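Quick start: read one record
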Amino acid sequence: RSTSNPHPLTMFRNCRIPARSLLKPSLYCQQQRFFRTIGVVGAGQMGQGIAQVASQFSGAEKVYLQDVSEKQLDTAKAFTHKLLHKNVAKGKISEQDAEQILGRIQFVNNLEALQDADFVIEAAPEILDLKKEIFQKLDKITGPDTILATNTSSISVTQVAAVTKRPEKVISMHFMNPVPHMKLVEVIRGLQTSDATYQQTVELAQKMQKVTTLSKDMPGFIANRILMPYINEAIFVLQEGIASVDDIDSSMKMGTNVPMGPLTLADFIGLDTCLSILRVLHTELGDSKYRPCPLLVKYVEAGWLGRKSGRGFYTY
């Protein structure tokens, strides 16, 4: 047999598929897809963490971290450098590893730089119109096979997907904060998300050393549907003068064995983010139990957003 005409089985060797599946080689090759270039939109705390983890573990050759703000990009780059070199000091990675991880991340301020990305993860603020605008642009910029994921913590994936011409390739990857340390990624399928998109998203999350759970496309998904009413009720307890900030957090830490109290956690998440999620829950589900506490609203109006602003329920 000529070497220029290989046996049919060798044609699919790289796909690692069982012989019985040769009738559908294109499906299995697609399911084993390797993402060489990953794009991340939004260089805030979540976007920075996603880009770092993607560069470190996903096997991607290049990761683009995009933001319209040069200042935010500079902050994200400095923070990534700081985190990686902390890991070097702890002996978790070598100096060479740290430089290679950082070197794979390209910090860019225009979405057009993501045109060659195989997989894009949007991590912009929890504003539906903003996410729709970003996805409309990504739909035009990226190739037709590119999967578009949103890191939304509460907004409908189906609504976001509807503004694109590829709703079957739109999905949610809800990472937890801080991304490099938290193992969970909630995966949420939109109404039209394909099985192949879901499988490839789970495989990417696993490469990034994350554990996935699957949620229906309902407001708040799993974690925030449970977590936000808990945080909100703690703020009501503070507003009503039932207990102090320290006593509320201490009661929950020592009484329920959680690592941090609800008000500390709210500061860590960002009070503006908590408020946005609660408003989505309250609007979409119509249940008064999700009504944001007025004290939370006042703190956000005052610019007291938690750790990122230097003041929330605690001063940092």
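The radius of gyration is 22 Å.
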